[in-house]
Amino acid sequence: MNTFGFWFLKDGQVALFVAAAVFAAWIYLLCARGGFWRCAERDDWADAELNAWPPVVAIVPARDEAGQIEASIGSLLNQEYRGSWTVILVDDESSDDTAGIAKEIAAGSSIERLRVIRSKPLPAAWTGKLWAVKQGIDAALAHPERPDYLLLTDADITHSPDSLTRLVRHAHVRGLVLMSLMAKLHCGSLAERAFVPAFIFFFQMIYPFAWVNAPRSGCAGAAGGCMLIRTESLLRAGGIDVIRDALIDDCALAKVLKRHGAIGLALTDRVKSIRAYASLQGIRHMIARSAYAQLGYSPVFLAGTAAALILGFVAPVVIAIVGSGIARLLAIASCALVCIAYQPVLRFYRLSPLWALALPFVAMLYLVFTFDSAYQHARRRGGVWKGRAQAEVSRS
């Protein structure tokens, strides 16, 4: 109790103030931030059937995805969609046989639905993925039957046979300019079980899905693995060019499109990521690639994030263990609120409720990875993906 690290616990007033502030913050988060923690926004819609099904083109940017491309493209070709439906895969300068595998799939398909194009050299001021998407959109717009909708999806994503039908029907009936599904991430390894639910939890905290789905709310977010976009609205917004340098392209696109109409975002079991992260190193890279970009490359926001994570997740545990009196009771209550808030996402991933006890530790590792993201950015290695450093492009 006499060490510098616990100086504030000797002063009951300071400890009480910290514990009360943290408790109030968690009350706000649970009660007044769009119910983000309840995981209530799902793709369990019961929309009316359409009289006519609009034409759709899926665009799949792929860079060194030989291990995933067969399952991903296969799931798209197996869609039960009743309208015109085409898939364009853009090979983004892959060093493996991504394009070859895709072409074999196309050759073996009884329906000529898949087109494979090779990306042109990456120009300045574009991130690699968005340049590939741009070329896919141009090819889609040149199609004899211009699509009413574009499905932007990743090469490590699989779709259940009814997912496109449900997406189009929901977007069409609700008049949405963007409908995005948060793909269910792979969650098998120890590292994934520790960090994947936390990733979804933090994402929903930043972008409460209920607020995203509210037309009058200024909150706009999306999940890049599965985004159905009304073509006309995208063109009216200026095309994909308006976010050509965005590292977090999905949320940037959502912000642009929400100015032109309502958008939607939901959790799903029908769209899944098959990219596995077997180790902590893989998780670190996933987070560090864009964490500092999420903070706008701001040292001030980085410091604020550090303070928020330490106060929100670590301080209650410390005060609950070594504090006393009302401060200790408030800290214990805050810990209980954290555990309660974390349960819905744990249930969504079918994990034990006891994983909530690890959340403070996981939150601190997220903070470490965020500082790593800032460090990599300072070294001009920010936003590295498949050999490309893209954070400097995002700031140009």
Descriptive overview:
The chain has 2 domains: 4-32 and 286-390, no CATH class; 56-278, Spore Coat Polysaccharide Biosynthesis Protein SpsA, Chain A (Alpha-Beta Complex). It has helices at 7-10, 12-32, 69-77, 98-108, 128-141, 163-174, 190-206, 209-213, 231-236, 249-257, 280-288, 291-294, 299-322, 325-348, 359-378, 391-395, and strands at residues 56-62, 85-91, 114-118, 149-153, 157-159, 178-184, 226-230, 263-273. It has 396 residues and is an alpha/beta fold. The termini are far apart. The chain has an 8-stranded mixed beta sheet with strand order 3-2-1-4-7-6-8-5, sandwiched between helices. Helix 2 (12-32) crosses helix 13, helix 11 crosses helix 15 and helix 13 packs across helix 14. The longest helix has 24 residues, at 299-322. It has 16 helices and 8 strands. The protein is globular and about 75 Å long. Helices cover 49% and strands 13% of the residues.
